[in-house]
Amino acid sequence: MATTSQRSVVIRLGLAQTLGWASSYYLPALLAVPMARELGLPTAWVFAAFSLALVVSAWAGPLAGGLIDRHGGRPVLMGTSGLFALGLLGMSQAQGLTSLLLAWALVGVAMGAGLYEAAFATVVRLYGQGARHAITGITLMGGLASTVGWPLTAWLEHHVGWRGACAAWALLHGALGLPLHAGLPRSAASVEGAELASQDPVAEATGVTGALPRAPAPSPAWTSFLLAVVFAITWFISTAMAAHLPTMLQAAGASVAASVAVGALVGPAQVAGRLLEYSLPRRVHPLWPARLAALAHPLGAATLLLAGPVAAPLFALLHGAGNGILTIAKGTLPLVLFGPAGYGARQGWLMLPARVTQALAPFAFGLVLDRLQGQALWFTAGLGLLCCAALLALRAGRFNPA
């Protein structure tokens, strides 16, 4: 059971994550066209600037994670509030491609140092193995980013234009995000020191201590490789679907109206998946729900392709629920498989390939969709099966259910 202090931390980080995602990841969907129109650029160049931000975020992640390992999340996340504000303010003043690219690059640094992975590292730094449910709670609140962000961005763009919308988001980072992060507790002694003192980090990560027999630990390099593959595939599929879902459903035979209605099911399904994971008994190893979640997209895709558009709602529900659970797995699996020592830096490196594939996903899947039309779903279904195979190759072992 979470303490009052831990709940307060989760609420602070959850609200800040909602703000961070809404003002970065979900911004181009509504502002790319008016940005491009006023700046005299092709819309594709605005999305290219966003892709640049995602690539920059990939390289900022490991550095930010290492800083959180050493100093805790509070100072790092306070800094990212400032970076978000500066980047968005710069975006509001962009006069051409160069200034737009520079603004998005600054936002990219803030994304890499301030979104989910940084929030996960912060609670692991504070609570060690007890951070699993805190990670789930943060993703539950962060899952509302599009629900809150898109209507607010649309309202702002309608009333004050895209420049005013960017400036307003910058103001919110200073007026809301910074105080939320400033109110986080300062980290105590590093969990790394406590873990090294046990002289058995594998036992600490799995919950097996003393002379209890256990199988030889898998190679940390092999485990890291498998996790990086899982995260890269997960981000590719989720980003590809976010960018192309309505078009892909229409290519599979659904009407325009049905495609929009079905797409609206993904968000609630993600939240439902995260609630399901949160309700599981603490003794359930997070590998098991992750393995089942990895099968959700391939199962939904196969059903849609074989049964036709009538199965589109089932596909959206399965894809959304699976993606919601896998978002949690990105935070919990490194914790239970490696322990809390060095979590932040490790998480940053594990997510680096995922950030790169995320940046490439809209373009790459767009090419596949153009060539294969509705059958392009077999491509992402195959990737989902590969993700599940990588998760099956990871050994669950015993772990501390705290």
UniProtKB/TrEMBL annotation:
The entry's keywords: Cell membrane, Membrane, Transmembrane, Transmembrane helix
Ranges where the Major facilitator superfamily (MFS) profile domain occurs: 9-402
Cellular localization per UniProt: Cell membrane
Domain of life: Bacteria
Its membrane topology: Multi-pass membrane protein
TM ranges: 9-32, 44-64, 76-95, 101-127, 134-156, 224-245, 251-271, 292-318, 324-343, 375-394
PANTHER family (UniProt xref): CHLORAMPHENICOL EFFLUX PUMP RV0191, PURINE EFFLUX PUMP PBUE
Protein name in the entry: MFS transporter
